[in-house]
Each structure stands twice: as C-alpha cells, then as structure tokens.
Give the backbone structure.
Amino acid sequence: MTRPSLLLSAGEASGDMYAARLATALKQRADIEIFGMGGPQMRAAGVEIITDYSEVSVVGITEILSHLPSLIRAMRRLLSEAERRKPAFAILTDFPGFHLRLARKLKNRGIKNIYFICPQFWAWRPWRVRVVRRRFAQALCIFPFEEKFFGDAGVPVKFIGHPLVGAVHASLDRQAFCREQGLDPQKKLVTILPGSRAAELRQHLPIIREACQRIYRETPAQFVIAAAPGSDLASVRQGWAAELPVKIVVGQTYNALAAADAAIVSSGTATIEAALLDVPMVVVYRVTPLTAFLAKPLVRTPFFSMVNLIAGKRAVPELIQNDLTPSRVATEIVRLLNHQAARDEIRSDLAKVRQRLGPPGAVDRAAEAILHLLFSSHGNAK
C-alpha cells in the first residue's frame, strides 16, 4: 500500500514556521509523504519543497501586480504536482490571497482542502468567509472568537489555540545574550523586528533608523535588529548612523526580545511572540499610499495589531501608515524606556492577552484533527 500524501503550503516566514511544526507533528504520528510550498523551516522538517515561498511572498494590493508572473508559476507547479501525486488533503496555511485561489483549483481537481491558521476575515473583508465555506472541508482556527465567526458562516471549524503558546522561549537570559552580542546589560536595550518581506523592510527601515537616532539623543540606548531568516541583510544593514550602537542578529529573535526593555515590532505574528515574552512594544506598519487607499474601506476593526485585537483595547501603541513617523516612534519608545509605570501597564494587558491565546499544544491538536480526517476518509474510501 502506498503512503498517503499531503500537500502543505505556506506563503511567508510565519506560515513556514507554523507549517514546519505541523509537518513535524504529522510525521511523528503517521508514515506520510508531505510536499508543497514553503521555506527553510518546512524543508528542515522533511517537507519536499516544490516551490519556495519567496516567489510569492508579497504584501499589498499594488505590489502583487509586479509579482503576477511568479505567483502564476508557483500556482501551476503546485497544481501539476497535486495532479500527479493525488494528495488526500491540501493543508493551506493563512496567506489567503494565494491560497483561496489555489483551494478553488484543487477542489475542482477533487482534492479536499483544510485551512490551518484561518485568514483574519473577521478583521477585513468579512464577506469572504463564504469562500472558505465553499472551498474548505475543515478550518482550524487559532483565536477563540474565530470559532464563532467561521461557525456562524457555516464553515466546519475547530478551535485549536495559538501554535506559539508553549513554543516561544528564550534560550539565553539578558546577561548571557548581552555578553554573546557584545552589548552592555546595564544600558537600555531596544529590540527591532522590522518585518520579513522586502516591501516591509523598504517601508519601515528608513523611519525606524531615524527614530533610533532620536531615541539615542534622548537616552543612551543600544539597539538589536532581529532579522527574519531569509531577509536581505545588506538592506537591513544599510544606512544606519555610525554613532548608533546597533547589532543585527539572525535566529536569535526570542533571545533579543526577552532581553529588551522595549521593542519596535512590525505588525503580524511577531507581536504575538513579543506578547508571549512579556515585552513592552510599539507596533508599526506601513504599505504604499495606493495600497492603503484601496484597503481602507475593507478594514472592519478598531485596531490593526493582533495584540490589541485580542486585548479588545489599545494595550500597546500602534503606529500605522501616516502615524508611523520617526518622531512618533521615538516618543513612544522613550516613554517606555524611561517610565516603569508605562512598561508595567503594558505588561498587565499582555498577561490578559496570553490568557486568551489558549493552552499549549495547538499544533498537536491540529495534527490529530488532520489525521482523524485523513484516516476516516481512507476508511470510507475502502
């Protein structure tokens, strides 16, 4: 009997991380073949990568247009392999712009889809939940309020909890991290997570660089940039003032966050990581003006950052689009560095956020749900 196969797909760094953990959990439980789209972490977890996510990892409505040829190529490669291998299921991780289209084409070829890490349609374009209902056999959601949102729309849904709970730990304490990186543990430390995509780095880094100069003029801080794996390090290094004490680290994000007095964090998964490590943060995000103009009518929530959405309040400062200026970033960070009460207030709210993220073991629960579907469908096929 041939081994069952699964198509597993992720379109960005955070999805690669989640999907890699899921692949590991699935392979620990069953003898299965997994292939699909992803990056270094999925490859390391034993997934056969058909197309690398770097080909499709774009952000913003206008930016997608210039990447259309590579998006189409990636889609065709995945569909060609799916037709050849006939996977029992396709497990698609977030990244709705690409995956909803892929799901339609896969379903038309008789392949059932599972959504792992559901897209945040409750926050923007909520009517698109109908597309999930039509194209997916199962949705695995990571926030408790998502279960009702998807369930009310008729989507077969299961709440698994957040995959990062129980998985985010520093391996070094502040003293050891500072010693390893040549930093002074007695001085204030600001950790910067500027984003993983090239477009995010282009939008964020010039503003963050100027903000850090302003911060440094007001308080003798030191700065660590935690670059995402696969980032263009040359562009991350470029343009920093010579007098600024700046270190760039790769693969040390959790240590860099845990050591920080405050952090500047690009909106997304990184804000959850910072919350789990109890780091007072300022959330930043910016896209091109045209993308912002086109997206504005689609947004349905009072907050942009995931931490504030989960908290149901402005737990952390968020500087989005025109609010993201060097002056505003510097003001918020200096306030956090110099006022213990401001840091304590954020930490109190972050504790509530952590409580709402669910218990550890989300990836194991996801793997068990997928294998239950896999083997019950195989049983039915017999």
